[in-house]
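R.M. (postdoc): so does anyone remember the format we settled on? I'll just put the structure tokens first.
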């Protein structure tokens, strides 16, 4: 199972969808589809950079990361009484400001186990 190869191919294909040429200015309708950039002050930026730079090169570390970081948000629930859904608790993980970086770290650990160690990672999915 070559996870990184398939992911790189998917990202490459997805990057062909929209390419802006530098000599053509973007219209107001085009820029309205994209959110504005984040504000300049971000106190979590050093931690984000550190998490993005962590290289997984140890089998035990990769296994620990895959076990500690869940594949799905554990907080999403349907509260049911007598078979009827009373209410739904939405996933709260996306409110975590470091969510993308932590999920990326888990993905790198899975890729290391699959590509470098040749292990089956389906138990972590």
């Amino acid at each position: 199972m070559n996870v990184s190869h398939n992911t790189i191919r998917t990202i490459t294909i997805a990057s062909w969808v929209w390419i802006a040429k530098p000599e053509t200015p973007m219209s107001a309708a085009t820029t309205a589809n994209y959110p504005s950039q984040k504000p300049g002050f971000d106190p979590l930026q050093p931690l984000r950079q550190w998490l993005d730079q962590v290289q997984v090169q140890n089998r035990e570390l990769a296994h620990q990361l895959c076990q500690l970081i869940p594949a799905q948000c554990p907080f999403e629930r349907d509260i049911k009484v007598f078979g009827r859904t009373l209410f739904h608790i939405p996933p709260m993980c996306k409110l975590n400001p470091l969510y993308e970086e932590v999920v990326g770290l888990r993905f790198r650990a899975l890729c290391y186990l699959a590509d470098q160690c040749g292990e089956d990672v389906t138990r972590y999915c």
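R.M.: ...and that's the designed sequence above, right after the tokens. Also worth knowing: Residues 8-21 have pLDDT under 50 and may be disordered. Residues 1-10+52-125 form one domain.
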